[in-house]
């Protein structure tokens, strides 16, 4: 051996001696030719005892050595390096690298086996994977909460929005999702159900219809609502199904759902339980843990407030509608020689009482009164003032229907009962049918002037504007009289009609109103009122910001 080769050999030997990684060299007969100090320290054998012997002769564990020997044989057979063997030894995890050692002829003369301790690396990788998985699950759950929140805020029809929210929970949070709410009489009503497989929804709905929830039950949703605390069942047993089944057929239906794990939370809004949210794992085989309760409670709170807000909205709208109807005549009277038509569209979504009103009633001595008005403001105060104006108008007209007398009476009533900042506009007409014509005496108090539409197409405003009611103590009113022949009509309206705005911000205006009426000369009173209202709604398709009232008086 030359000096250079000897130096290389000694250098190699020194590297092997110093290496912390265990190393072995196998001969073609799979006996150990060399064992490094690091490898000897892992073995219970004395130093040098392994050289020239096989693992069978050393009574090494077959479960560890047989797979390893197959890899060594593969290196001898193919001459290819192997790095894919991972095993356990001394309570640690090791990666084995098998490298062929060639002779001068290029044949594999030996195999060098190096073991690397990868325990910490695997632990770090597992922890990293765990953290990534947890982060991904958290992101998915936050996405579900965000999507559910978006659905719950999209409409005030809580049945529709709760169903949509239930649907976004599967499959991320559950295989099944059900929402029940407490009814006005304490009954428990199913309002939403969702499943990863839409074909199974029919089975769930069949169960809901055939076996409704008993509010007095001491288990399930009724208990959840009464106790106001989350319920978690990590593993649903068949014994639990049998305990909850009403009869054998019910039990078979429950078994068909393949229920595995359950998590339920009460729906609490403003410290009041409005229902329950039930999440169920089935086909996926997943199980709920205590860590899932917080997320379910968060989702439950969002659903609870959506249900509560929607119910409050419906209650407010019902109250507003009832109050609004009380400020309008339940029906227009049937007066010989006069055809009447009216249309009313409140502002907003119907939860606020508007200040527009109209009224038509017959007079004891013959004839009738038609009036339309607009009270300033919205809500309860406007409703109170509207009621005052309507009652004052009727009472004054029954004593003396003259427009000046009636407007004076209304003005005095407002001034006596309300602050000076409160006002009202009114267009008031006395109707006196004749044999062929309808005599109209009109007085206006700050209200848009009614439009007189002749059967031949002529159109013009009627009356004088006058001052607002409730502003000054001694106003002056101007009365105008006009005759309506057959087919002629008087159109009374509130400023919500002309002041309606398109999405682009354009005002409907008086000219558009004139054009609509002019295109329909001689049209019946009901049809004309509805045509005007429909045209304005098409011009302003958004939720109206002001009430819109129309009253049409036509000589039949």
Please identify the top-level CATH class of the largest domain: Alpha Beta
CATH fold assignment of the largest domain: Phosphatase 2c, domain 1
> Low-confidence stretches at least 5 residues in length (pLDDT < 50)?
none
Query: What about the largest sheet?
Result: 5 strands, antiparallel
Count of all domains: 3
Q: How far is it from the N-terminal to the C-terminal residue, by CA? A: 133 Å
Strand coverage percent = 25-35%
The geometry reads as: elongated
Named CATH architecture of the largest domain: 4-Layer Sandwich
Radius of gyration: 44 Å
The helix content is 25-40%
CATH superfamily of the largest domain: PPM-type phosphatase domain
Count of helical regions: 15
Give the overall pLDDT as a whole number.
86
Number of strand segments: 20
Structural class: alpha+beta
Strand order of the largest sheet: 2-1-5-4-3
């Amino acid at each position: 051996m030359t000096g250079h080769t000897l130096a290389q050999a000694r250098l190699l030997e020194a590297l092997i001696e110093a290496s912390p990684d265990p190393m072995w060299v196998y001969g073609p007969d799979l006996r150990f030719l060399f064992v490094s100090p690091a490898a000897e320290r892992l073995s219970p054998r004395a130093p040098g005892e392994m050289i020239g012997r096989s693992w069978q002769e050393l009574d090494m564990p077959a479960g560890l050595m047989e797979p390893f020997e197959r890899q060594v044989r593969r290196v001898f057979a193919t001459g290819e390096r192997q790095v894919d063997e991972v095993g356990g030894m001394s309570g640690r995890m090791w990666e084995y690298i098998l490298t062929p050692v060639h002779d001068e002829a290029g044949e594999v003369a030996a195999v060098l086996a190096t073991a690397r301790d990868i325990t910490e690396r695997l632990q770090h990788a597992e922890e990293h994977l765990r953290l990534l998985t947890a982060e991904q699950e958290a992101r998915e759950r936050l996405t579900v909460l965000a999507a559910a929140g978006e659905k719950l805020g999209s409409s005030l029809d809580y049945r529709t929005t709760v169903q949509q929210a239930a649907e976004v929970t599967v499959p991320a949070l559950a295989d099944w999702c059900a929402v029940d709410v407490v009814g006005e009489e304490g009954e428990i009503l199913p309002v939403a159900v969702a499943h990863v497989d839409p074909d199974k929804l029919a089975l769930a709905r069949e169960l809901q219809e055939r076996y409704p929830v008993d509010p007095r039950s001491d288990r399930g949703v009724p208990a959840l609502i009464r106790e106001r605390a989350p319920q978690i069942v990590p593993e649903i047993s068949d014994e639990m199904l049998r305990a909850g089944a009403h009869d054998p057929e019910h039990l078979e239906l429950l078994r068909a759902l393949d229920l595995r794990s359950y998590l339920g939370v009460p729906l609490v809004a403003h410290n009041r339980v409005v229902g329950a949210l039930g999440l169920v794992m089935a086909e996926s085989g997943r199980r709920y843990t205590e860590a899932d309760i917080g997320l379910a409670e968060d989702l439950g709170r969002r659903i609870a407030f959506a249900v509560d807000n929607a119910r409050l909205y419906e209650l407010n709208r019902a109250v507003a509608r009832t109050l609004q109807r009380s400020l309008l005549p339940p029906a227009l009277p049937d007066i010989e020689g006069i055809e009447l038509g009216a249309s009313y569209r409140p502002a907003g979504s119907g939860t606020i009482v508007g200040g527009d009103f109209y009224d038509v009633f017959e007079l004891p001595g013959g004839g009738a009164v038609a009036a339309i008005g607009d009270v300033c403001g919205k809500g309860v105060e406007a409703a109170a003032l509207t009621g005052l104006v309507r009652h004052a108008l009727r009472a004054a007209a029954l004593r003396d229907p003259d427009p000046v007398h009636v407007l004076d009476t209304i003005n005095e009533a407002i001034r006596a009962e309300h602050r000076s900042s409160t006002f009202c506009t009114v267009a008031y007409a006395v109707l006196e049918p004749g044999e062929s014509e309808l005599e109209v005496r009109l007085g206006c108090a700050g209200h848009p002037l009614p439009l007189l539409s002749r059967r031949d197409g002529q159109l013009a405003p009627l009356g004088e504007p006058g001052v607002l009611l409730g502003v000054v103590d001694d106003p002056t009113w101007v009365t105008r009289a006009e005759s309506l022949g057959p087919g002629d009509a008087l159109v009374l309206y509130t400023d919500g009609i002309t002041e309606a705005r398109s999405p682009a911000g354009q005002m409907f205006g008086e000219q558009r109103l004139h054009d609509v009426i002019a295109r329909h000369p001689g049209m019946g009173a009901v049809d004309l009122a509805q045509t005007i209202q429909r045209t304005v709604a098409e011009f302003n398709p958004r939720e109206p910001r002001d009430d819109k009232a129309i009253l049409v008086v036509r000589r039949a």
